[in-house]
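CORE FACILITY INTAKE
Project code: CF-77B
Contact: R.S. (postdoc)
Sample description: multi-component assembly, two entities in total
Requested service: structural model of the whole complex
Turnaround: standard
Below are the sequence entries exactly as provided by the requester. Do not edit them.
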Amino acid sequence: MTRRFGPGQWILFILVLLGALAAFFPFYWMFAGATRGASEVLSIPPRFDLGPRLGANFRTLVENGFLRAALNSVVLSVVTTLLTLLLSALGGYAMAAYRSRFGNLMFVLILLTLFVPAQATIIPVYKVLVGLNLLGTYWAVILPAVASPFALFYMRQGFLSFPQELAEAGRIDGANEWEVFWHIALPAVRPTLASLAVFVFLFQWNSYFWPLIVLNTPESYTLPLFMNTFSAAASIDYGALMLGLALTTLPVLLLFVFARRLFTSAVLGGAVKG
Amino acid sequence: MTRTATSTTPPVPLRRRRRTNLAPVLFLLPVAVPLLVFTLYPIAGSLLLSFQRNLDGVDQYAGAAQYRRLLGDEVFRTAALNTAIFFVVQVPLMLFLALGVAFLLNSPRFPLRGLFQNVYFLPTVMGLATAGILFRTLLNEDLGVINYALTGMGLKGVPWSSNPWWAKVAISLLVIWRSLGFNVLIYLTALQNVPRELYEAAELDGANPWQTFTRITLPSIRPVLLFTVIMSSLATINLFDEVFVLTGGGPANGTLTLGVYLYRVAFQNFDYSYGSAVAWVIVLLAALIAAVQYLAGRRNA
């Protein structure tokens, strides 16, 4: 392939550089806009500098209920992640470590459901939630997300490489099946758990469609829902809007910056193994 | 693990068999119940719903009536056509771009390749709704920075939200912006897994760069290519969030996709049976396209 870095390569380099600028510019625009006043985000000519209104924008957001939405997002994402990890790890371990008819049946079923898009299930899931009187509650968002064929499949794959001799050694030492799972098998698949955690958290944090359908009061809104309502107001405070978007993005951005390897392995894992 | 080292309890092999028979069932039950209620039952339920009709609050069997309704539904046809346009234009475009960038970044001489890879990946972490709102301000027709830049270069400002075609372009820009880094990452990983010996052998045989690319690189990453084609196709057939937030399906239904139409029918008109029929058309389309792509990809291998 390319051995020298000639003029042709420089043109390609500039193209890649322009692409990278295009990828990065909306982030800069968002964070810079977060510091400016309502009329200085959309203005002709546009401004690229920072403004002095970061604190004022934050107060505007808070007055409109931003903190409640942030709390909702944190609670929903954390609970969904923990529950999904626990249930999928238990089920995935059962499918990988034991030969059981129930496990085999489950495996065939999740393989089938992996290929059915969400569209096929949303209406009945909605009706089930109405029937269980859960509409508008956190559970309406959490429970359908926890029932993830992908997470179960991912954990099963993770536990396949767990050596059964270790479990057997634990049993000989008198550990019961739960103790074998919790103290021996689970610590052995920590990397799989970590990347699944990142994957599920990111998915739930950014989730828009499902919360939109089942959360029907502003008090229960997550950040993406809150921001879209905020952006549809009659008179939009664009500075505060940019700050809200920036704060919505910041947690996942930090996750990416500080756990980049985990992050890419989660995405690749979701892509290649899923 | 500490238990293994410290415990002195003697083995109890006789009771173990019983326990291992019950354990997998107990371990699977907590995830099996929500899967049954929120995934398996709903698949069957929506299929059933699509063959029913609601009369005075009671669902009753209606044969293929809902599917026949689709045939005469002009808005559905518009949604299907728009989705097809997105599929035909956007999927090849976003994948070619990603492959090109990945191919360049794969060259060990390329400066700052690690930094570029990270920057390209950044948009993937931003939520679809967040990105949609952000793009609404960037692409504002009168005051947006993109149109300002275009007019500054002597071009005309683009009617991103008032022209049905330019609104489609706006959606595609958002989709490509968010997905490029994801596909670049997948392609780069695949390219780095191509055995070095293959390239050395090609060089010994006097292959030019194009021959190397078509005879060595492409066949080596074929499974990954096939995977990204199928994934991007499915995402495009299901296109919803980007459209819902950026354009709401407008103007004049110019960006109405099947996904947005499903939302309108089911959750704005509360016509669950008709919505289920729309949902199953999407499912069948997605399955058909994925199957064709999979078989085509396999046959050429």
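Facility notes:
- Residues 1-19 of chain B have pLDDT under 50 and may be disordered.
- The two ends of chain B are 47 Å apart (CA to CA).
Invoice: internal transfer
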